[in-house]
């Protein structure tokens, strides 16, 4: 009896199309699924992302996808992928990665039984609502995938999950890496004490407050908030500059502090908050985030680590991590490949993933085992 007969392939045989932006993560996911299903056969389907000399492109599939349950993985935040345009080395940005997703769906030509797009970092998620005369990119992108025939979209820690209202009839799953982040922190930080008297969870702004409250509730710690006072009369790099971070919360002296947010861009806000917390005599300042971009480089984070202002930064491998960042002693990557493989396995077998949407129970179990 073949391995496939042990599984209910309601949605067709599984096929993973991993675009170059997500290659490392996709290969790990494939290995986890192979191990789970006790098979040596790969689930990866080759995809060629071709660029012509003038910058135009296409995606070519070399294997049949007819009747398969296809999962397309793409990291729109990967800034390391390049191609040659008019003889010049050009880096792919989010727009080009998203275009490759659409090209892949086009190459499938309706032959697959079902198409799911896994965008760990949701495309244009920072432009999720309209203020005045401006574009509404994220909503338009989701509607475009729906029109192309995508049946389901999986993403992580969307900047604003309400953007799914743009596609009310399409399956949209917003997952969170909370369990894996907490587990990695507990594994790495042997001396951290998880209780109300030793740990404080910090929200870096009002928008991240729900996330901080969730962390604090499952960890049994208090929560604090930094309010960003901005200069609304000026716009710098598309946003109002921050004048000062105002703190609201209990005394942080001699406490370990965990700053939680969905992303680090330049990191200026996080570093300013870390400095303020150390000025208030916090013991250790840890940072946990889903996506770490470090758009202005790593030097300042290294300096703050050397100066004892930050102790560690934790972020997932859901978006590109540079070789330089991997080597940084102040950074720890949280591997999400096993979690995604479980989700894909469940969906391919038409099983519910509801219990993976809320990590509260397994987090309590993890903390009880540590105690």
Summarize the structure.
This protein is α/β, with parallel strands linked by helices and 371 residues long. The chain contains 10 helices and 16 strands.
Task: Kindly describe this structure.
- By secondary structure, the chain is of the alpha/beta class.
- It has 2 domains: 3-175 and 337-355, Rossmann fold (3-Layer(aba) Sandwich), CATH 3.40.50.2020; 178-335, Rossmann fold (3-Layer(aba) Sandwich).
- The chain has 10 helices and 16 strands.
- The chain has a 7-stranded mixed sheet with strand order 12-11-10-13-14-15-16, with helices on both faces. Strands 1-4-7-8-9 form a 5-stranded parallel sheet, with helices on both faces.
- Strand 10, helix 5 and strand 11 form a beta-alpha-beta unit.
- It is globular, with a radius of gyration of 22 Å.
- Mean pLDDT is 92; it is low at 1-8.
